[in-house]
Write a structure and sequence with these properties.
- By secondary structure, the protein is an all-alpha fold.
- The chain has one domain.
- 65% of the residues lie in helices and 1% in strands.
- The chain is built from 15 helices and two strands.
- The protein has a two-stranded antiparallel sheet.
- Helix 2 packs across helix 8, helix 3 runs antiparallel to helix 4 and helix 5 packs antiparallel against helix 8.
- The longest helix is centred in the first third of the chain and has 24 residues.
- The C terminus is likely disordered.
């Protein structure tokens, strides 16, 4: 973690300079863009290359027993990162992005990184694995709408996967989680408000994919079967935000595939909180959920069930309160592809909506 942190801390300003020189900037155009000046992309490449160098160093020097699974997550993450970079540069179609994410998920399955709670129904397990990987990958992408938010939540999730389910954990999980956490932590000082660089789709989708792979490598159910919910808690903020946005759009009779201000972070901003206050609050919520996951995996069956019922009720009350917060409805006017799959919404759907023509004119 220390090595990847140092690498990321040094590589992030390097890629920032490249973005500035190539004029690869996110201009504040569109209803969903809240920044006031152009901000360079390519921060995701700093995260990726820091992770790459750290993992390759461990594979060469230590040769862990789970090397094939480490390589599977690394190669799949590379596919997703390259696809995200291509989307940042050229705005790929949602269908093509979805296809590449499915291919990366199948690669994980081929090397044994998959959901294993349905051993008697392997095909169903494969399908659920693909759904899980694609869902988490894009959930992280969805919350990348505020300075430092996605990065901080990812660091906390990495710590959660290292510290929470210690029972039956496979060694590659701790290795990858620590390497990824360090890579993102080194990027955060440059991404915290006021952000000097964004991670873009290349970074957000890469983080989501690797976290989805990490989540499937732990043994959660040694004490109780309800502990299968532990990864849902550790990744609770991005998964909750995705569910909240889709549900609110549906209830309002609005297309679920069109950008809006229904995100949890933007609703907290509507209360008058600053960006730093919102980010800090959601970081704290992520830490609380990770701690709850650690508590859950160590309970008896009955206590775990009661705990999750109570937690679900609290989440329902929280949803009622959050959904009642009035937000700017100007986002209704944002035009996007009506067939856009909600899993494909980019880290700042609004960033790209008004900037596609400018991207075509850039020379790289």
């Amino acid at each position: 973690m220390i090595i990847t942190f140092a690498l990321s801390l040094g590589l992030t300003p390097f890629f920032r300079k490249i973005a500035l020189r190539s004029n690869y900037l996110d201009s504040p155009i569109g209803q969903l863009k809240k920044h006031t000046a152009p901000v360079p992309y390519l921060g995701g490449l700093a995260i990726y290359f820091s992770f790459l160098l750290g993992i390759l160093g461990v594979l060469i020097l230590a040769q862990p027993p789970d090397s094939p699974r480490v390589l599977a997550i690394f190669v799949g993450g590379t596919v997703v990162a390259l696809m995200g970079l291509a989307d940042d540069l050229f705005s790929l179609s949602p269908a093509l992005k979805f296809l590449f994410e499915m291919i990366a998920a199948v690669l994980l399955i081929f090397f044994g990184v998959q959901l294993e709670f349905l051993p008697s129904h392997p095909v169903l397990g494969w399908v659920l694995t693909v759904v899980w990987v694609v869902g988490v990958t894009n959930a992280l992408n969805l919350i990348d709408i505020m300075d430092g938010l996605a990065g901080g939540v990812s660091v906390i999730a990495c710590l959660g996967f290292v510290l929470v389910p210690f029972l039956g954990a496979q060694s590659y999980v701790h290795l990858i989680a620590a390497a990824l956490g360090g890579s993102v932590l080194g990027f955060l000082p440059y991404n915290y408000q006021p952000a000097r660089i964004y991670m873009g789709d290349a970074g957000a989708l890469f983080l989501g994919f690797v976290l989805a792979g990490i989540a499937m490598g732990h043994g959660y159910t040694q004490m109780n079967i309800v502990a299968l919910c532990a990864p849902l808690l550790i990744l609770g903020v991005p998964l909750y935000d995705t569910a909240l946005v889709m549900a609110l759009r549906f209830l309002k009779g609005r297309s679920m595939f069109r950008g809006s201000n229904d995100h949890l972070a933007l609703r907290l901003r509507a209360l008058g909180l600053t960006v730093k206050q919102v980010t800090g609050s959601l970081w704290a919520l992520s830490a609380l959920l990770a701690a709850a996951a650690g508590f859950l995996v160590r309970l008896s069956e009955k206590r775990a069930l009661v705990f999750m019922v109570f937690f679900s009720f609290a989440a329902l009350v929280f949803t009622v309160i959050v959904s009642s917060i009035p937000v700017d409805e100007g986002a209704k006017k944002i035009k996007e592809n009506p067939f856009r799959i909600f899993l494909m919404e980019s880290p700042a759907a609004g960033r790209k909506s008004g900037n596609k023509k400018a991207k075509r004119k850039r020379n790289f």
